[in-house]
Structures are given as C-alpha cells and as structure tokens.
Design goal:
Elements lengths: L29 E9 L3 E8 L2 E8 L4 H18 L13
Antiparallel strand pairs: 1-2, 2-3
Length: 94
C-alpha cells in the first residue's frame, strides 16, 4: 500500500511504534461503510483505505479499562498480522 508514515508514529499512549505500519492516518485516506460487528468495547466497520477494502476497528472508550483492553487487542492484532503481507488496522479517536 505504500502509505507515508507521519511522525510521531506511535499508539495513543506512545508506547508502541512501527517503522512500517502507519499508526496515524488522515481521515481523508479512509472511509467507513457499514458495521460488520459490535462488541462491548468496539465496533468493526467495513471500510476503504486508499481504494482498498479494509476492516476498521473503532473503540468505544468510555472507561480507562476499555482503553487498556483495546490497547491489548491492538497489540495482539499487530503481532498476529505482522508479515510482508500485513493488514492495516486503523485506530482513531473521534
């Protein structure tokens, strides 16, 4: 996908970073379509990123524990998906 990485390229807490996966994307580079799944801590949407179909996981961060849980989920998804053909997972705030 060859997207530009904007510094600082870190998670919301600043503890995770990547030299190959952009963690901050401008809203103009992606769009949300319809919800695919809903959980207690997040909603997964079908979306597009630079014309490609992607899944976008949007957190529902009402409590600090939700932030902790969502952060752990992102770290796990990042670990599982890290490969030469890795998927892009978008984390954003309203």
């Amino acid at each position: 996908m060859g997207m530009e990485i904007v510094e600082p390229n870190t998670c919301i807490r600043g503890c995770c970073s990547s030299s190959s996966i952009p963690l901050h994307l401008p809203p103009s580079s992606y769009s949300l379509l319809s919800p695919i799944a809903r959980g207690a801590e997040s909603v997964v949407y079908e979306g597009t990123l630079n014309g490609d179909k992607v899944a976008v996981k949007k957190p529902i961060l009402s409590l600090s524990q939700h932030i902790n849980d969502f952060h752990k989920q992102l770290q796990l998804l990042w670990f599982v998906s890290f490969s030469p053909k890795s998927h892009v997972f978008i984390y954003f705030k309203d």
